[in-house]
Design goal:
By secondary structure, this protein is α/β, with parallel strands linked by helices. It is about 35% helix and about 20% strand. Helix 3 packs across helix 7 and helix 10 crosses helix 11. The termini are far apart. Belongs to the aldehyde dehydrogenase family.
């Protein structure tokens, strides 16, 4: 029997039920009980007690001691790399378990979560490889001295992860932070802590020294605040909403602490009149409706050349109406439930707002009328047009399967509308002409531009946003530097005393 054949009530979610992971030790949390639910049917998967500010304080203090211990701090890069490889091995050996666990907890399809688990393992392997080839810099001499630039650990990293793809997001924070020689205190999202706790078990079994990792589920206003404001936390990395990110930035400013913030988006996806329409339709749909639209980089604003606007929307709406909704663990499902009914209701409220603003709902726009889906947090994939780009529906992040379509007349009009947003995380261009694609890509205000594809990621390629979509860049070979302090070292080569004192 596989996990797929097992009823949710009997799934072996955690090796130690209702425990949190504090500085390498499993123990009962001190906070209130919280029911973690399956968004496909509303059933309780597990009740866990949440961490408290005292738990966070203990995790940070012990993390600081572990990070300062020469047994960890003085390891050579290739020796730290061995730990990352072991963690990657453990993740890969538990792919099915992690994928299904995330599907039950977030509603994502098993196909997607399997890919996310593979991405997490790949992230640890990538940063292990970067460690194997990491060099300090011998900088250009400007006098009779030798100059070097070296990277050193910060100490304790506070990592606050989102609920939409926990295993991959966790890895993208934990792996480079450990690679840089730090300890990590991770706070998973309140709704989706199970995968993060399971990942902690695997990392512990891989032999990471005690104290270097803590996983503290709980409320952001309690655990998150305690981590951000703790004097021994040297950096915070956060993925989530812009308002929360702004609050973290304010708290970090008080401490003069660096932060990495991956925040919201309202990403434009653009279809030019010379695009392959069938490829563009499929790409636009994947960009907004995969992950049930619960993605910061979702292509949620669609700009189509007016000359092909009606034809394109007809194709898009017809295909969208054929998408299959269901539980994420059903292999036929394309659109799973939203993470929680409260979030589903927030998305539904935005569609109601679109109607009030004068938008036309071309498809979707409702909770599905299907007995199979009645108890879950489902919402039909929705396409809306007839709104100006200045409307709230077009300007505010909905974070659900809702696409707003707008026509444009010429490239000047397109750039003006696409860049008219407080966000600047991602964008997409569909065209058959590489020169047009290059010119538009350079003019779009976004941290990532996809051309004739969408939502493709590589851990080797830096990622970040502009404007209110965030601060800092992570991933890539320089990703370890984001979790390091840079130090300059000068070696004097003069054989005679400094003449100034003579």
């Amino acid at each position: 029997m596989t996990i797929l054949d097992t009823a949710p009530q009997t799934l072996p979610f955690l090796p130690v039920a209702d425990r949190i992971f504090v500085a390498g030790e499993w123990r009962q949390a001190r906070g209130p009980a919280f029911a973690v639910t399956d968004p496909s049917n509303g059933e309780t998967l597990q009740v866990i007690h949440q961490a408290t500010a005292d738990d966070a304080d203990e995790a940070v203090r012990k993390g600081r001691a572990a990070a300062d211990d020469p047994a960890w701090r003085a390891l050579l890069p290739h020796q730290r790399a061995k730990y990352l490889h072991r963690i990657a091995d453990a993740i890969e050996a538990n792919t099915s378990r992690l994928a299904l666990l995330q599907s039950y907890n977030t509603g994502k399809t098993v196909t997607e979560t399997t890919g996310l688990v593979g991405s997490a393992a790949g992230t640890f392997r990538y940063f292990a490889a970067v460690l194997e080839t990491a060099d300090d810099d011998l900088t250009t001499p400007r006098g009779n001295f030798l100059t070097m630039s070296v990277l050193e650990p910060i100490g304790v990293i506070g990592a606050i992860a989102p609920w939409n793809s926990p295993v991959a997001s966790d890895a993208q924070k934990i792996a480079p932070a450990l690679a840089a020689g730090n300890a990590v205190v991770l706070k998973p999202a309140e709704w989706t802590p199970l995968v993060s706790l399971e990942l902690a078990r695997l990392i512990d079994q891989a032999g990471l020294p005690k104290g270097l990792l803590s996983v503290l589920p709980g409320k952001g206003s309690v655990v998150g605040d305690a981590i951000v404001t703790h004097p021994d936390v040297g950096k915070v990395t956060f993925t989530g909403g812009t308002n929360t990110g702004r609050s973290i930035a304010h708290a970090a400013a008080e401490k003069l602490m660096p932060v990495s913030l991956e925040l919201g988006g309202k990403s434009p996806t653009i279809v030019l009149d010379d695009a392959d329409l069938d490829a563009a339709v499929n790409g636009v749909m994947y960009g907004i409706f995969s992950s049930t639209g619960q993605s910061c980089i979702a292509g949620s604003r669609l700009f189509v050349d007016r000359r092909i606007y009606d034809e394109f929307l007809d194709k898009l709406v017809a295909k969208t109406q054929r998408l299959r909704l269901g539980p994420g663990r059903d292999p036929d499902t394309q659109i799973g439930p939203m993470v929680h009914r409260r979030h589903r209701d927030s998305v539904a409220a935005y569609v109601d707002l679109a109607r009030e603003e004068g938008g036309r709902v071309l498809c979707g726009g409702a909770i599905p009328d299907d007995d199979r889906l009645r108890d879950g947090a489902y919402y039909l994939p929705t396409v809306i047009d007839g709104l100006p780009n200045s409307s709230r529906t077009c300007q505010e992040e909905i974070f659900g399967p809702v696409l707003v379509a707008l026509p444009f007349d010429g490239e000047a009009d397109l750039i003006a509308q696409a860049n008219d947003s407080v966000f600047g995380l991602a964008s997409g261009i569909w065209t058959g002409h590489y020169r047009r694609a290059w010119k538009l890509a350079r003019r779009l205000q976004a941290g990532t531009v996809w051309i004739n594809t969408y939502k493709q990621f590589s851990i080797s390629t830096p990622f970040g946003g502009v404007k209110e979509s965030g601060l800092g860049v992570e991933k890539g070979r320089s990703g370890i530097a984001a979790y390091s302090r840079q130090k300059s070292i000068y070696w004097g080569l003069d054989e005679e005393p400094n003449p100034w004192a003579n």
